[in-house]
């Protein structure tokens, strides 16, 4: 089925470049520059922690933007296989050929409908709750944004390279921040002060499991919410409305699966890291959770935290249904109605 791996890598990378050309510059300038720095580190195979060469990085960034200008209008290319070319969004067809060879491919639309493509080493495959989990190792082709975990074509796709990069970047950020925070407690739990590499290994293993738990929660949430939810999400053009919908479903998934499992397993490091990453709209919607976290720190008892999580599952299910009702009541204005809700009336959704 596969005669030329180099040609496949080049084609996937070309599609990644086209996707970046169309969407990368939609980010804020700060986010764009941070993502580009890490993309350069990946492409040039520069180790974590090594200083990036300023002049070379600047030249590379200018060259990449020039390349984007030349490919932005091109169509995504079919992937070359010996039997027949395959549409780049037909990941299941691609993986039928690649998985036996120790390779894995993922494609799909992410946040704000940005296409994502990645070709990587297959580290392992497993099944949970009837869902296939594909764990990717070394990445041979990827686009600018690297979501560590996602549901793709009914399978959970976990990218260990992206997980490790995320954790390292969090650790670097923390070096310039106050130490006694949820993030600091997570790094202390994993022993970063004794041995950074060993701590990173331990944290990568633990937090990749948390990401799998979240995606399993997403699967359960999707089964409960039904096709109306996906229809709504597919029609949202407002970023504010989409962020609100995704935040509510994230909370539902985590209160059904992620947080109860972490509490049951007494995964303290992961609980600290979860609260450290509860920010923005997700934190604004769920003030009861950080309050319960502070109670745990004070009394060294997770009872209140567990009660908040247990009670919140029904709340987030109701909130998700409220969003669907608001949208489908008048689909022509549904996007605008959810945008208005996201901007001015979060009180009814908060927990």
Automatic annotation (TrEMBL):
Matching InterPro entries: DUF6866_C (IPR049200), DUF6866_N (IPR049199), Sfum_1244-like (IPR054640)
Superkingdom as given in the UniProt entry: Bacteria
Pfam family, one: DUF6866_C
Residue ranges annotated for the DUF6866 domain, each copy included: 8-159, 164-338
Record-given protein name: Uncharacterized protein
Organism encoding this protein: Sulfuriferula multivorans
């Amino acid at each position: 089925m596969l005669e030329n791996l180099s040609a496949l890598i080049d084609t996937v990378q070309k599609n990644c470049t086209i996707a970046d050309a169309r969407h990368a510059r939609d980010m804020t300038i700060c986010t764009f520059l941070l993502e580009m720095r890490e993309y350069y580190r990946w492409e040039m195979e520069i180790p974590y922690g090594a200083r990036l060469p300023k002049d070379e990085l600047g030249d590379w960034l200018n060259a990449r933007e020039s390349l984007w200008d030349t490919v932005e209008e091109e169509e995504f290319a079919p992937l070359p296989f010996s039997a027949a070319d395959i549409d780049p969004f037909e990941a299941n067809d691609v993986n039928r050929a690649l998985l036996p060879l120790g390779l894995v491919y993922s494609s799909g639309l992410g946040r704000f409908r940005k296409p994502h493509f990645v070709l990587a080493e297959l580290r392992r495959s497993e099944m949970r709750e009837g869902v296939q989990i594909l764990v990717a190792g070394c990445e041979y082709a990827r686009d600018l944004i690297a979501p560590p975990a996602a549901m793709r074509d009914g399978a959970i796709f976990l990218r260990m390279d992206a997980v490790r990069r995320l954790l390292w970047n969090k650790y670097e950020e923390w070096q310039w921040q106050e130490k006694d925070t949820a993030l600091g407690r997570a790094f202390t739990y994993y022993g970063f002060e004794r041995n950074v590499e060993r701590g990173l290994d331990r944290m990568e293993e633990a937090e990749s499991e948390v990401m799998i738990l979240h995606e399993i929660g997403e699967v359960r949430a999707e089964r409960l919410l039904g096709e109306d939810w996906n229809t709504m999400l597919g029609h949202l053009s407002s970023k504010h409305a989409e962020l609100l919908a995704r935040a509510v479903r994230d909370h539902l998934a985590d209160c059904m699966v992620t947080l109860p499992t972490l509490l049951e397993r007494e995964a303290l490091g992961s609980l600290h890291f979860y609260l450290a990453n509860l920010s923005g709209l997700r934190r604004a919607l769920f003030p009861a959770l950080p309050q319960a976290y502070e109670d745990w720190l004070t009394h060294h008892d997770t009872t209140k935290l567990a009660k908040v999580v247990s009670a919140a599952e029904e709340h987030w299910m109701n909130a998700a249904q409220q969003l669907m009702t608001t949208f489908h009541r008048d689909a022509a204005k549904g996007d605008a109605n959810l945008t208005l809700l996201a901007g001015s009336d979060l009180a009814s959704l908060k927990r």
